[in-house]
Structures are given as C-alpha cells and as structure tokens.
Amino acid sequence: MKFETFKQQQLQDPAVKAEYDLLTPQYELIRQIIKLRQEQHLTQKALAEKTGIAQSAISRFESGNHNPSLEFLRRLALGLGKSVYVELR
Length: 89
Description:
With 89 residues, the protein is mostly helical. The chain has helices at 3-10, 14-39, 44-51, 55-62, 70-79. The longest helix is centred in the first third of the chain and has 26 residues, at 14-39.
C-alpha cells in the first residue's frame, strides 16, 4: 500500500484528522526551513555556525523532536537571510 493511500485512509478517522491538523503548521515550518537551507546549499553544521545554534538542536528541530522558541526561529531565519512573521488566525 502506498503511503498516500494509507494516509488518506487514516485521515478518515476524526481523532487522527484532528491531531494531523494540529501538527500541520509545525511540520510546514520545518519543511520551509529545510527547503531554504538546502536551496542555499547549507548543511546543518554550516547553518549552526552561521546562527550560533548547536547543530544537534537544528537536527532535533528538523526531525520534529524540538519545540522551538520564537528566538530559536528568529536566529534560524536570520542565518537563512529571512525574517520571522507570526500571525494568529
């Protein structure tokens, strides 16, 4: 079974869908950071050197195992030549 098929089946369960929706913004942010880092041909180590953030912390963030502070995100953004914009909806 393909992952997308499995995912769609699981999302039919309201409890799974609610949890998935809750985590979507976090994982979208992670995808954006990884994409920017790769587009700039930066390794996690190189980004760590630019930001002063430990490479292990960047790795934990990118794997979804770290709940970042706004300051952490600001430093990552600056290291990638970007800024952080927060919006409540």
